[in-house]
C-alpha cells in the first residue's frame, strides 16, 4: 500500500475519532482527504459510508443510538415518550426515539435509517422552552425537563393512549423533583394553562 495513502488513512482515523466516531465529508476534506480518496478507503474496507456524506471506521463497532442522535440531530431535543421513560413516568420502553426538531430542519435528515426515531416538528419559539441536558447511557443529550414534558403530554394528549397519559401525570404529581412554578410558566407560554390547571389543580390539592 502506498505510504502516502497509509498516512491519509491515519489522518482519517484521527479525524473520525475526534468527531466521536462519525465524520462528515467536509471535515475529512478540510484535513486534506479528497473525495476520491474516501471512495478508495471504502473500497479497501477501511471506511464505511453510514449514509451520504458521513463516514465511520469499518473496524469500529456499531455506534450506540445515543451517539447517532448526537451526530445527526445536534439541534434535536429528546421529548415525549423518550423523555417520559427517562424520568420514570412511563415503564414502557419506547420502540423509537422521539425527538423535537425545528420545522426548518434540513430535508436530508428525514431520510436517516440507522435507528428508529420519530420527529416532533416544533415551532422555533417553543423549541428551547424547558430544554435541559442529561446523560443517556454515557452520551449527553438535550432533553426537555419534567415540566416541559408534561406540557407536551397535554399538547399531544389526543395522540397518546389514555392509560399512558394518566400514568405519566400521576407519576409527575408524585415526583419530589417537580417544579410547579416552571410548569405554570411553560403552560402559560404554550397556551395550555387552563387545560393543565383544570386537571392538575384537582390532583395536587386532592
Write up what this structure looks like:
This protein has 206 residues and is an alpha+beta fold. It has two domains: 3-57; 66-205, no CATH class. The protein has ten helices and eight strands. The strands form three sheets. It has a three-stranded antiparallel β-sheet. A three-stranded mixed β-sheet has the order 4-5-6. Strand 2 and strand 3 form a beta hairpin. The longest helix has 16 residues, at 3-18. It is elongated and about 70 Å long. The mean pLDDT is 89.
- Trace the largest sheet across and list its strands: 1-3-2
Portion in helices = 40-55%
Order of helices and strands: HEHHEEHEHEEHEEHHHH
Number of domains: 2
Largest sheet: 3 strands, antiparallel
Taking the alpha carbons of the first and last residues, their distance comes to 75 Å
Task: Please summarize what this structure is.
The protein is an alpha+beta fold.
Tag the structure with descriptive keywords:
three-stranded antiparallel β-sheet; alpha+beta; 206 residues; 10 helices; three-stranded mixed β-sheet; 2 domains
SSE layout and pairings?
Layout: H1 3-18, E1 23-24, H2 25-30, H3 35-43, E2 47-51, E3 54-57, H4 65-72, E4 77-78, H5 80-86, E5 97-102, E6 117-122, H6 124-127, E7 131-136, E8 139-144, H7 146-155, H8 162-173, H9 180-189, H10 193-205
Parallel strand pairs: 5-6
Antiparallel strand pairs: 1-3, 2-3, 4-5, 7-8
Helix pairs in contact: 7-8, 7-9, 9-10
Amino acid at each position: 500500500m502506498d505510504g502516502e495513502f497509509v498516512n491519509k488513512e491515519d489522518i482519517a482515523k484521527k479525524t473520525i475519532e475526534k468527531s466521536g466516531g462519525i465524520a462528515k465529508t467536509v471535515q475529512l476534506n478540510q484535513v486534506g482527504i479528497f473525495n476520491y480518496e474516501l471512495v478508495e478507503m471504502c473500497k479497501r474496507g477501511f471506511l464505511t459510508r453510514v449514509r451520504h456524506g458521513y463516514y465511520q471506521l469499518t473496524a469500529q463497532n456499531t455506534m450506540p443510538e445515543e451517539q447517532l442522535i448526537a451526530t445527526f440531530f445536534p439541534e434535536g431535543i429528546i421529548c415525549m415518550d423518550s423523555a417520559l421513560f427517562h424520568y420514570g413516568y412511563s415503564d414502557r420502553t419506547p420502540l423509537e426515539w422521539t425527538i423535537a426538531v425545528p420545522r426548518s430542519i434540513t430535508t436530508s435528515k428525514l431520510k436517516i435509517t440507522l435507528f428508529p426515531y420519530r420527529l416532533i416538528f416544533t415551532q422555533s419559539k417553543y423549541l428551547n422552552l424547558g430544554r435541559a441536558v442529561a446523560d443517556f447511557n454515557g452520551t449527553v443529550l438535550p432533553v426537555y425537563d419534567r415540566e416541559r414534558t408534561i406540557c407536551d403530554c397535554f399538547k399531544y394528549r389526543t395522540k397518546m393512549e389514555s392509560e399512558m397519559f394518566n400514568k405519566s401525570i400521576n407519576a409527575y404529581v408524585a415526583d419530589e423533583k417537580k417544579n410547579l412554578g416552571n410548569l405554570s410558566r411553560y403552560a402559560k407560554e404554550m397556551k395550555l394553562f387552563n387545560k393543565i390547571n383544570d386537571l392538575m389543580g384537582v390532583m395536587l390539592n386532592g
